[in-house]
Each structure stands twice: as structure tokens, then as C-alpha cells.
Amino acid sequence: MTNSASKAVAYGTIGGIIGGIIFGIMMHMQGMIVMLAGTMGSESAVMGWMIHMIISVIFGISFGVLTFVIRNIWALAIVFGIGIWIVGPLVIMPMMMGMGTNLAN
């Protein structure tokens, strides 16, 4: 891995952790962390936090790597943000909970 690629992964990891903690606090206050744990058959807030932080780090690393593809950071942020919003809470999470997608709502 080149030096710039390893920096992108490192910065993405750090960004994912920071963003995950901030967004996780908001999710926790709304009871969504326990709902996330439910996707794995658990009712534990700790399990929900672990799932959430793993996903956050994956998203952070993905964002860091995509900076090589989309050089305009603002365009990347908008496209990436909309993309993870559609894929995560509107498609994957409801389907894992047996509810179908939320795309039509």
C-alpha cells in the first residue's frame, strides 16, 4: 500500500470512529442502538454499539479510499452521505429486521 493510500485508510478510520461516536450518541438517545442490535438477534446496547462502530469504521475507510476516485471532497461527501443513507437505514437495516425496505415511505 502506498503512503498516500495508507494515510487515506488511517484518516478514514479516525473519521469513522469520531463520526461513529457522535452519531452513535444521537442514535442511543433515540433508542436506535438497541434496534440495531436487534438485527443480530440481540437486545444489548453494547452489541448495538459494537455493530454501529464496525459499520462506522468501514464507512470511514470507504470514504478515505474514494477520495482517490472523486477528488472534489464536497461532491464526494454529498454522494457518499446520500448513498449510505439509502443503503443503511432505508434498505439493509429494515430488511434485516424483516420489515422490507423503507424506500417508498
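the 2nd protein, sequnce then structure:
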Amino acid sequence: MNKIIKWMETHFIPVAAKIGNQRHLVAIRDSFIAIMPITMVGSVAVLLNVFFRDLPTAAKWTGFVENMHWLININGIVWWASFAIISLAFIVSFGYHLAKDYDVNPIAGALVALSSYIVFIPQTASFEAEINGVKELVSNWGLINVDYTGSAALFTALIVGFISTMIYIKLMQAKVTIKLPDSVPPAVSKAFAAIIPSVVAIYASSVVAYLLDTYAQMPLNDIIAKYIQVPLMGLSQGVFSVILLSFLVQLFWFFGIHGHNVLAPIMDGIYLPATTANAEHYLKYGAEGIKDLPYIWTRGSFDAFGQMGGSGITIGLIIAIFIFSKREDSKAVAKLAAPMGMFNINEPITFGLPIVLNPVYAIPWLIVPPISVAIAYILTTLGVIRPVIAAVPWVLPPGLYAFLATGGDWIALVVSLALVALSVVLYTPFVILANNMEDKEI
């Protein structure tokens, strides 16, 4: 084990550290984090409709649902201001963080990214309308379809945002700007400096949009969705992908590297759109939509069934230590870590026991979450538990997180707690092993 750890420290850690600090990946990660308020408010609308529309409807409390119709309608408006425009929120955030990382005007970077993306949205829409009692196909200009601003367009927003903002950044760095006298106020000077790079970036996007509209006769988002996003999302829904990502998070953490941060571009870039797509589908179709949600596994699924108590499901380790440990040092750390572990904060146990680079706990640390997510994945595909449909605060206690994230599924709550119990069983042999090493460092 020591030889393996030494080899990993020499060859694996430097590469992992570079990935974790890569400026473009960091910008993607920070951009997703920044739009969490939008994601959360949309999820609140989903959860409120669960408790004020769907569960009462299932219980045949029709009078209650009718009285709450005003709140249900408000939740629909909240959806319009959150999930319906989440791609626009992301691209503003992405342009800002990317430009800020390169130390150029971040506000201009955000606006360039947004404007460059808008040019790729179709300007006309066709729909069926009833005119003088006759249904006709009507085409109108100046309409923006939410299919191009919601979660389905996140991947396109990422690509367009990156390319357009980088054009702006490189021109700014090359000083292809309008230089004003020093006597001009800084705000005015910054705005003028960004004019030429912004014009070039937006015109470049507009030319590409024109060529696609003229020759491909298909919007960029549709092209990317058909040939890139759909295949990637399909791969992400396989059990192998789910298990592998769960394992890699643990592997990075074992060496003291924040696994979620390193893998955020993948986990957030692919699985977060799946969460919002499920939420949008549920808000649109209600309880009936549960039967045919677009995605089985989403970003919140990892937290609901593979991160209870924090990475490694360490709440199970804490319980095992309380029951089976004879080491006073381990018990002391567990007592300090337990209150925070209930809210998925596990740094005290991860670095206090420690688990990082600890050969005794390496095996359960690496295998407990993958086993748990594999079980939850199978139960989800079999229809035993609902897929996750809402992003909820990550600090919610085990069980409660799964219950709310799945829209009030009691079976999901039971499964989440059962997986915590399983983690206790899997950690126990290694806690006992640590007892036998009482006079040694573990």
C-alpha cells in the first residue's frame, strides 16, 4: 500500500493539481457556483408545487389545491425567471469569471459573452394560431424560444461563451483598444478600451450564426445538441460513468485534493443540466411527468445517495467509530466531527482522523460511495425511487436531502438512510483493524 501511495504522490498528484488549477476549468466551476441562487429559486418552485399541488392532488384534496392555485401560478412565474433563462445567467457568469481570471474588464467580458450567444438564437418562431375560427401556421419575428435559454442550451452557452470571451480577452491583451487620455474617468476609459475587442468578438459570432442559418439551416444549439450534447448526456447516464465519477472524487480526496472541484466541469457541466431538465419537465407536466423524466441520474443524485455526511459517506464512519472503536483519539475526532457531519461537512473527520493518505481506511473510502451510487442507480432505473428533480441545499442532513431532491419520495429517504447503514457495515472491519494498531500511527 505504501508503495502505491508513493507512486501516486509522484505521478498522479502533480497532474491532478494542474487539472484542479487550470484557469478555464476553474472559471467554469466558479460560473456554475455563481448561478446557484437562480438554480435554488427554481428548485424551491419545484418543491413548493410538490407540497401544494402534487401531494395534495394524490391525496384528493382538490379544495386545498384550488385554494393554493395562486401560489402554484407564482411558482410558474418563478420558473420563468430561473430555469427558463438559466443558460443566459450562466453565460454572463462565465464571461465575467473568464475575463476576470485574465485580468481584463470582467463586466465587458460578461456582456460580450451574452451578446455573442444571443446572435445564435433564432429570431423567428412558427406556431399554430386560430384566426377568425381557422387554425393557421403563423410565423413571427422578434420571439425568443425558451428552448434556447433554458437548461437544454447550457452546453452551447459554454462553448460560445468560451470562444467569444477568449477573442475579447486576447484582443484586450494585445492592446487592440481605443486609448483615451489619462484625464478621462476610469469607467469611461475602460468602456472605450473594450469597444474594438467587443465588436470583433460579437461580429465573429454573428458571421458564424449567419453562415449556419444560410447553409446549415439549423441553429447552433440544435447542431451541438444533436452531435455533441445528446451523445455526452447519454454516456453520462450509464452506470459505469456514475460509478467511475464517484470513485474519482474519492481518489482525489484521498490525496487531499478537493475531488468535487477538480471534476466540477464534468459533474456540473453535464449533470447539472440534467437536474434542471428534470425540474423543467416536472414543473411543466406535474406528477404525471415523473413517469417519463428526461434523465435518470443528475448532479443531486450523487449528493443524495453517495455523499451523505460528506465525501466518502463519512457519517457511516463516525457511527462505526462510536460503536466499535477502542481508540480514544478516533473517538475524540468523531465527537468533534459528528455535529458537522450531520450537515455534510466532513473536513474534521477527513483531515482530523485523518483519512487522507491513511492506508487503513483507503479501501472503504474508495469503494463505499461507488457501491452506494450503484445501488441507488439500479433502484432508480427500476422505478423504485424517483430520479432527482430539484437542486436543494447541500447542507441538508442525510435522508432529508434525498426526500426533498426527489420531490417528496419517502422511499428515496429510506434508501438514503439504508445506504448510510451499509456504509457503517463496510467501515466497521477497518475501524476494528485500527483498534489493533493502537500503538501505531494509522
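The chain has a mean pLDDT of 83. Residues 410-435 form the longest helix (26 residues).
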